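Morning. Coffee machine broken again, so started the prediction first thing and wrote up yesterday's gels while waiting. Chain of 215 residues, entered below exactly as on the submission form.
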Amino acid sequence: NSFCTLLEGLIAATTMSRWAVACAVAVALLACGAAAMTTKVEAKTEWCFREDVGKDIPLRFNFKVTAGGKLDIDASVYDGSGRKLHSWHGVTEGHYEVHGDAANTKFRFCFSNKMAHFTPKWVSFFTHKGVHPNVANVEHLDPIEKTIMELNEKISELRDKHDELRVEEKEHRATIEDANERVWLWSGVEGFSLLFMGVLQIFFLKRFLEVRSSV
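Came back before lunch.
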């Protein structure tokens, strides 16, 4: 967001005091955390999104296919000039890290389901911006600031893990709901079959008794 961009610019352009560095880390942690979402990629289509990142700022990208077909998809990462930085083919999940520089501060991430003829795919993904290396340079920090940096890293790891668990939870919930639908459907088929067999038995028994009585 714009606040993250402003913060990155301030970090890169100014010499900050130790306490300002610590505060910047805390603010960056709260305001510039991970952004997670899920999208549906229709068959024979490609879906892309863009992320802006400041100079020397790392950006982590993770994705996982949660539903659809064989849970496989193609994915690619491009820089601002359209140059392909990395790609995956027929994978269920993947991760990649980019760094903004003077030439590239905009990156494009794409999911392609063009290999599928009919089946859409649901993909959960999230991006996480790191902090400027001037902030992350723990050699020049006092113990309190080092502790804040360590907490920043731990909480970032927890956020990433939390996003992964949310994706797995959605996947398991979808599996359970699908299984419940199949159970209800099969129960309905069984009930209809039993009713149909009962009607047939009554019909043939009635015909049999009518024939016996006529004889």
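Strands lie at 34-41, 46-52, 58-67, 73-78, 84-91, 93-99, 106-112, 121-129. Going to sketch it on the whiteboard this afternoon.
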